Amino acid sequence: MTVAEETEVTLAVGQQKDLPATPDAAGRHTDREMHAILEIGVRSPDGAEHTGAPPPGTGPALAEVLIVDTSRSMLHPAAKLRAAKDATVAAVRMLPDGTAFAVLSGRFDATVVHPGPGHPVLAVAGPAEREAAERAVRILDADSGTAIGTWLELARRLLKDQPAPVKHVLLLTDGRNEHDHRSSRPLDAVLDACAGQFVCDAWGIGDDWDAELLLGITRRLHGHAGAVRDVSELPSVYEELMAGLLGTSVPELRIRLTPTPGTVIRQVTQVVPNEQELQPVPAGSGGRAAEYVTRAWGDEVRHFQVVLTADPTGRERGEELQLAAVEIVVPDVRRPVRLPPPRPILVRWTDNPFDASRQHPGVRRHELYQQASAAVAQAYRAWLRGADGRDAADRELARALLLAAELDDAQLLGALRLIEAGPGTGRVRPGLKDVDWQHLILSSALTTPPEQPKAAGPGGARAAGTGSEAPAGAGAGAPAGPGAGAGGTVPPGPGVCGRAGADSAAAGPSGADGSGLPVRSDGLVECPSCKWLGPADSVFCGGDCGRPLRGASA
Questions:
Q1: Is 268 within 8 Å of 255 (Cβ atoms)?
Q2: Which residues contact 278 (CB under 8 A, 6 or more apart)?
Q3: What is the H or E stretch that residue 350 is in?
Q4: What is the pLDDT of residue 434?
Q5: What is the rounded distance in angstroms from the CA atom of residue 455 to the CA atom of residue 445?
Q6: What is the model's pLDDT at position 175?
């Protein structure tokens, strides 16, 4: 297997390393927050095409459940139901042979349309099954109300025992979850049960869907929310969604964080292409590491914000120290995957009271997106008050426009200008419908990375305004290059994760790796400060002090 035939995963850590070590007004040292941005990319082998077919002998790669809203409102107008049928049929036709799948009809309760009511297992795609599913979808009618929790609960039961590495639900609705009381348990409880079981994309159609509902579902189930303005667009949207799903390169990717003693992981959040807070899962037995699961990666780049806290008491000033090690783990690999070496998240304690970590451009960008999304939500709530809220709606829209301009996000600016009365007015356009705001709320939830500067000469260029290392790589769709560190300056990852970095210097006898530390007979080196033992190629101590080891004297 050559490098060119491997799927490549890349990792870069972007951060401002300086944190204030000065005590507070009462003379106490308090924990400080370090914010860092992880840029993770997945790139398939050159020229590779994913068709959804798994490698020979590995079983189906995908298990799919398509949920069609068949509540009574789908008949007003009837074009919604026709478009939903056409889109569902288009998706079924794209399923590769051997794919486990089902189609559900959603009302007060959920019914298996195909392979049929009462079937406890999914159908297996093939010519006959696809044709049978299409016939069942074509005769669907609409009646009664909407209880989305019952739909997702049935999908969970059908997917529960499926061995496919990618379990996916595509949900379509034209309304709001108005009949949640008809479900055996509320939607929030159903989402808790479904979390980690499958990925869900949720789409709105028509004029009465709820953006916050779709976002609540997809953020919890690690999917994407969207909507069509014209019902005739839905079939092509479904085809595009299925093509992306069948192009999954890595079904599951885990971010493993191993903090040094005294460092606490406070939060890990996906911030590009949308915001999703990740929950930790145990990383093996014992140890300090935690893993954060992400799913269904195509060829793409995602950004994650990590927030750590640490106490500067007794720490050296002005020296880069390790707070945590970051490692990428891909379990149950079906195709050859080349993983990046571990990377450190660092700190440099200073006596300057200015907290620099929040000023990293990736961190700042996420905060701007949060502010823009909040401004849109506040403008919408003010607009709902009618004439009484007109001035407040205008103020919040103007604020959102300024933030979108600062972000240089053309997509968000375009969505805001559909709401604006006229270019540069900063005022809400008269005659808007509620659905116009719902589309804007979805648009404000999408995020993009900053444009990367072009290389200036042999050494390239730093991102403007960073004041420190910026994440390597480029925007969405252009993964960071192999071995790319933050601005190309962060050393290879530490041995605390138990892996030698691909670009680390090979350890040799008696400090032949350049560290100056003698290598013990068992292949380990000992930190001269805290006596931590680690692999001979360790760059930073994984023990109490977190100090750099390369260049240290024995």
A1: yes
A2: 255, 268, 269, 270, 292, 293, 294, 304
A3: strand 343-350
A4: 97
A5: 31
A6: 93
Q: How many helices, marked H, and strands, marked E, lie in the chain?
A: 10, 21
Report how far apart, in Å, the C-alpha atoms of 251 and of each of 195, 244, 276 are.
16, 12, 17
Q: For residue 230, give every residue at least 6 positions away whose Cβ sits within 8 Å of its Cβ, in sequence order, or none.
A: none
The residue count for the chain = 554
The whole-angstrom separation of Cα 473 and Cα 488 is: 10
Asked if residue 82 lies in contact with residue 43, where contact means CB atoms within 8 angstroms, the answer is no
pLDDT value at 421 more than 50: yes
Tens of pLDDT, residues 388-414:
999 999 999 999 999 999 999 999 999
DSSP-H helix ranges across 418-533: 434-444
Going by pLDDT thresholds of 50, 70 and 90, the confidence category of residue 1 is very low
**DSSP 8-state assignment for residue 507:** P
60-117: pLDDT as tens digits: 789 999 999 999 999 999 999 999 999 999 999 999 999 999 999 999 999 999 999 8
Q: Beta-strand (E) ranges in 148-213?
A: 166-173, 199-204
Residue 551 has pLDDT above 90, yes or no: no
Tell me: the pLDDT tens digits for 488-516?
333 333 333 333 333 333 333 344 444 46
Inter-CA distances, 500 with 52, 150, 164, 285, Å: 33, 48, 31, 21
Q: Distances in Å between the alpha carbon of 502 and those of 153, 190, 341, 482, 484?
A: 44, 43, 6, 10, 12
Nearest CA among 179, 318, 296, 313 for reference residue 242: 296
Residue pair 168/244 in contact by the 8 Å Cβ criterion: no
Cβ contact 42:114 at 8 Å: no
For the chain, the C-alpha Rg in angstroms (whole number) is 26
Tokens linked to 414: 């375009």
Q: Is the peptide bond before 77 cis (omega within 30 degrees of 0)?
A: yes
Tokens 């020229």 found at: 47
Task: Report yes or no: 69 and 144 within 8 Å, Cβ to Cβ.
Answer: no
Q: Please, is 471 exposed, middle or buried when counting C-beta atoms within 10 Å of its C-beta (0-12, 13-18, 19+)?
A: buried
Closest CA to 211 of 83, 373, 405: 373
250-308: pLDDT as tens digits: 999 999 999 999 999 999 999 999 999 999 998 876 688 999 999 999 999 999 999 99
In angstroms, rounded to a whole number, what is the distance separating the alpha carbons of residues 320 and 29? Answer: 19
| Residue of 320, 323, 312 lying closest to 353 (CA atoms) | 312
> What is the structure's pLDDT at 257?
97
Rounded Cα distance, 36 and 360, in Å: 8
- For residue 344, whether the previous peptide bond is cis, meaning omega lies within 30 degrees of 0, is no
